[in-house]
Amino acid sequence: MTTAEPLRREQAPGERAPSDPTGPGPRRIRSALAVPAVTAVVALLLLSGGALMRVPKASGFLGPQFFPLTVGALLMLTALVSATWALRRGSARIGRGGAGGGRDTAETPSPRGDWRTLTTMAATLLAHLALLQPLGWLLSGTLLFWGISYALDRRRPLFDLCVAAALAGVVQLVFSGLLEVALPAGLLGKVL
């Protein structure tokens, strides 16, 4: 009983066929490295701009170089960790022969993207920009941080609102206390 058809290995549930175009491969890994690459470029721009910045002698305690260099270093660290994570995840998927590999496929992002999250974040940022002068930093910053956490599907809105208010307060203290930079006071400046 010979057949002309070659023997095929049976696939495990959730495993994709090797010829599946949506399976992992060099193209998918390259696309996963796009965000870390852009983040690294922005980090390099911040680091070089901060290092080449002319600092006046009368600058404050931390000086104007502190934030660009700190944010640049943190962005570079984020880019490296994100690239490492993408490479490990991509090689693990290639080793398993597919994106499923017995895991829940809900982890795999939709090719259409998450438009709800994107539009909520964009609306939150636009509202923050529009309300910064009239409401002041504390209120608009609180709304910004809370809106972003809401967009990312947090399940505890009251707790998130308290954390957002505390974070906005810490930013206010850092800017006014350490850097001597006045953020907009808005309504609270008229009340207090």
UniProtKB/TrEMBL annotation:
Chain segments annotated as transmembrane: 33-53, 65-87, 125-152, 158-183
Biased composition (Basic and acidic residues): 1-13
InterPro entries the UniProt entry points to: DUF1468
Short name of one Pfam family: TctB
Keyword hit for Transmembrane helix: yes
Residue ranges constituting the DUF1468 domain according to the UniProt record: 41-184
Keywords carried by this UniProt record: Membrane, Transmembrane, Transmembrane helix
Protein name: Putative tricarboxylic transport membrane protein
Origin organism lineage: Bacteria, Bacillati, Actinomycetota, Actinomycetes, Streptosporangiales
